[in-house]
Amino acid sequence: MRLPRSVLRMGVASSLFCWVSSALAITTGAITASVASPDCLAYRVVGICYWLMCSTFGCDLQTSAKVSHYVPDAVVSSYMVTGHNPWIDVAFMSPPNPSAKDGGDGTTNQSHENNLAKFRNADVIGHPAGAVFSKFAGEFGTVCDGAGVPFTPYLLSVFDTIPWRWNIPESFYPEALTPGLREIGSRALLNLWGNVYPRGGFLHQTDDYKASAVVAQRAGDIVTRPGQIHVYQPLLALPRDGYWPAGPLFETAPLTGKWQELVPTLMPICAVFPNYLPHVQAFDGGYAWALWRPYSCCQRQGEIFLGSVDFAP
Fold first, then answer.
1. Is 172 helix (H, G, I), strand (E, B) or coil?
2. Which of 66, 93, 216, 272 could form a Cys-Cys staple with 78, CB 3.0–4.6 A?
3. pTM
4. CA dist., res. 78 & res. 214, Å (int)
C-alpha cells in the first residue's frame, strides 16, 4: 500500500525528533531540520480580512483568511565558556575580548556545597531555517513573515560588557529590587527559576539548566524591546495592512513567545519557562533554544485594507 505524501512527511519529521540525546554542540543543518514541528508552529485560522479591489469598472469587496502561527525568529544560546557558543557554526561571532574574557561558575571550594554564583554568556542570532520553514509552514496555508533574518546577530553578550557583566544600570531598576516582580516561576508554587532583572549574565541558581534558561529569557526580553540600555539590535517587525507582528516577550506567557530546546536535547515541542519537561544537564555548560514568536497575517486581495474580524475563541 502506498502511503499519502502527508503521512510520509510526518514520518520523516518524527524520525528526526526521535533522536534525543545529550550533545556538546549543534550544527546549522540540525537546527534547520528542527523547524518541522507542528506543535511549535501552532497554525490556526483565526479570522477574516476584508479588502477593497477597484478597477475602471468599479470596486469589489474581497476577503482572505486571517491566520496565526509561530515563527522561529532566533536561536538563543546560553553558555558558560566565553567563545564556545554551542551552535558551532556561529561561535566565531562571539570571541573573547579584553573586556569579556572568561565565564564560568563561582564556588566556595567546599565539596559539600553547590556552585551558587553562575555566569552565562548569551547570543541571540537569527534562526537559519529561512526557506525550509516557509516550505514547511506553507503546507498549512498562508505563511506570515517573522522578524528574524537568518544568521543576523541581535545580541552578543561579549560586546555588551557593562550591562551584561556589571549589571549597570539595571541592578538599580525597580524590577531588580522588588521581590516577586518579573520572575520566572513562583515562590508560592515552588517553581521559581530566577528573576528577569537585572538582565545580565550573573545569577544565583543551583541548577545549571534553569540558570541557563533564565539567562536565555533575559536575552530574549532585551531584543524584543526597542530602546534598551544594551548593545544590541531589536528583533522586531513593523505592523502593516494585513500583518500583525509579535510584540515584547514576557516570561511564562506563551502568547508572547515560546522556546524549543536544541542543546543539549533536541526537542520536538515548544514550552515556556518554567516547565516540567525532562531537563538534561550539559556538562560543558552550553545550552541553546529556538525562540518561536506569534504572528498573524492574511493574504493581500486588494489595494485597500478595510479591516479584519476575528472568530470567537
1. helix
2. 216
3. 0.89
4. 9
